[in-house]
Amino acid sequence: MGNVAQQIIDSLAASGVQRIYGVPGDSLNGITDAIRTNDSITWSHVRHEEAAAFAAAAEAELSGRLAVCAGSCGPGNMHLINGLYDAARTRVPVLAIAAQIPSDEIGSGYFQETHPQELFRECSVYAELVSDPAQMPRMLRTAMQAAIARRGVAVLVIPGDVALKDADSSTLAAAFAPAPRVLPSESELRELAGELNAAGRVTILAGAGAAGAHDEVIALADRLAAPIVHALRGKEHLEWENPFDVGMTGLLGFASGYRAMEAAQTLLVLGSDFPYRQFYPEHARVLQVDLRGEQLGRRAQLNLGVVGDVKETASALLPLLREGRDRGHLEDATRHYAKTRRKLDELARPAKDGKPLHPQHVAARIDAHAAEDAVFIPDVGSPVVYAARYLTMNGRRSLLGSFIHGSMANALPHAIGAASLNPGRQVVTLSGDGGLTMLLGELFTLVQSKLPVKVVVFNNSSLNFVELEMKAAGFVTFGTGLENPDLAAVARAAGLAVLPRQVRYVFGGAA
Q1: In the CATH scheme, what is the code of domain 186-340?
Q2: Boundaries of each Thiamine pyrophosphate enzyme central domain copy (predicted)?
Q3: What percent of the chain has pLDDT over 70?
Q4: At residue 503, does pLDDT exceed 50?
Q5: How many CA atoms lie within 13 A of 416 on its CB side?
Q6: Where in the chain are the domains?
Q7: Which of 55, 201, 451, 503 counts the highest number of beta carbons within 10 A?
């Protein structure tokens, strides 16, 4: 029958899990030994548990399936927390196995004692302690289902001694991944159509909730004669083959997206939780479609909000909308976008001889040379700006990042998960020098796990975006300088291939 740890690993394998990211430790010995004897699941050893959680988050986002990470008791699983917060805010299904101290020592102030079920409560949809073998596999099944159904983090806390006890039964947990259709009621659809039919200038703001709904949103924009502004997480899903695209708004956006929203008499928000309230139009009527009812009206005062999947709702709404709308607003917005786009592209020109390359130019060249199905992963900070403005999506490329949690150092560990999931797919990081050096040890993970990630470092010897924020707020820049080593030499010492010096990109004079 085996022990509880073997039951957990066999259940995860039966649920389609292929790997577990983590760092081993004595309280995890039962789990890692069960992985050693299982042919379906591999142990993906990283150098820091934070990277394990980020890697699992990236795998879950790209695959849409449950991904798993693990940490040993006390400080081991505590290190997971930043990556788990990122997974929670991105709303991807991740299971974290948090090992605990011996069960008979809990509450005694024992060596490395923490209470993970409390520690992870805020960033999880489920966090519970397994204290008896009889609780398995039901608790594991409940944890997996919570992560999948609620698209979030589930944490299973298990003391090392409980993991080594004989399993109470031979039953395996199996997770289900339901795919329901979610539509507003008929009366809500008619009310929404009535609002749109009576509207003058309509602009669409679409986000990650529009994933898989590209054609339906395009058809809706065509019928409404509406320009489409995309949030950053909507870029991947809506930017390509879109004659209605007018770019982004917000802190990372540009004038055309802001203007298209500001000029709207009605704003239709589709699957977006765009957080910056100051960028919403002040006088427009706001209509919102979101799969999660709790999102409705969170960012702007609504005239109407409905719960529904964007793809299903757009399809059901289209036949109810009148045709023959005036297209002046759309044409004005797309002309302004073309003008704005030309100005942005002018910034991506090559530098003069002997001068450091412009980062915009580097981003544009990455875009030009990357594979048609590349996964791009920018670090939080200025690399996100360059990714948002100069990477082009085509329906096959992916763009990942810590776009909601906003954590430094996400690019390299996210890349570990992306490359582990798809070994043959090109994965490219746009790493900042601050972000890279924060989790520098994960370069060794790339080598050890033989992951062919392309790491591009924007090395300006500073926390550049923090400096920009300081200047914008009227502060003198302070505490943002970085004295970096020769990062190419570090990478070469780690065992990575490095471009020859004459073609290596240089920023701000720092090699």
Answers
A1: 3.40.50.1220
A2: 190-317
A3: 97
A4: no
A5: 37
A6: 4-163, 186-340, 349-503
A7: 55
Predicted model pTM: 0.95
- Is 478 marked active-site? no
Mean pLDDT of the chain: 94
Residue of 380, 384, 427, 453 with catalytic role: 380
111 is catalytic: yes
Angle at 267 between CA 216 and CA 325, to 5 degrees: 65
Which tokens go with 65? 């399936």
Superfamily grouping for domain 4-163: Thiamin diphosphate (ThDP)-binding fold, Pyr/PP domains (3.40.50.970)
Q: Do domains 4-163 and 186-340 have the same CATH topology?
A: yes
CATH superfamily of 349-503: Thiamin diphosphate (ThDP)-binding fold, Pyr/PP domains (3.40.50.970)
Pick the range with the lowest mean pLDDT from 226-235, 272-281, 445-454, 464-473: 464-473
380 CB contacts (<8 Å, ≥6 apart)?
401, 402, 406, 407, 408, 410, 432, 435, 465
Return the pLDDT at 500.
67
Q: Does the annotation mark 112 as catalytic?
A: yes
Would residue 186 show up in a list of annotated catalytic residues for this protein?
Answer: no
Per the structure block, which two tokens stand in for 129? Answer: 């302690």
Q: Write out pLDDT tens, residues 201-224.
A: 999 999 999 999 999 999 999 999
Catalytic residue among 7, 46, 49, 274: 49
